[in-house]
Amino acid sequence: MNTILRKSILGIAGLAFTGGVFAGPVAAHAADTAHAVKPVTATATATVQGDKLIPHGVQGDQSRIDLNDEQTKNVKAIIAATKKAGMDERAAVVSIATALQESKLENLGHLGDRNDHDSQGLFQQRPSSGWGTVEQITDPEYSTTAFLKGLKQVDGWQDMPLTKAAQTVQVSAYPDHYAQWEQQAADLVAQHWNK
After folding, report:
1. Cβ-count burial 29-39 (b if 16+ within 10 Å, e if not)
2. pTM of this structure
3. How confident is the model at residue 111 (pLDDT cuts 50, 70, 90)?
């Protein structure tokens, strides 16, 4: 995309961060799902594909959750949208890790009193921040494509640690939390990419 569009997207994201708009949805949802997160020791399962999936190695303690059918369906939708966008397995790992952090791969609607902002969907995108309509951002293909468009605007995202690439797009109040999902995201991509 052109520089003006990129600066506009990053400017909107910066305003959102400045206002602390992401703290509510992330904190509210994290409190509800913290019991499901279990720190695990990183395994070498996904690194079979070499540097493609985890080029920098995982950072910090890793978390893992068991996925239900709906969450697995969302993983497959993220992978399909990544392929459709012409992006590689690493982009899918970044996307899935981001969605694990933001929603635990659940396509969330508005959280009501637990959420004082309008964040929704797998990536907790906000209609008021220009991500799209509620209908669009609760569509896994659309929300993944929107996230990937943001990721493409990050110069050198392929060479960044996952958490930095994800944070540059998401502008979260919790920038380091994406790293904990890298191993599970890579395992999921290794499992579902070629299906």
Report:
1. beeeeeeeeee
2. 0.73
3. low
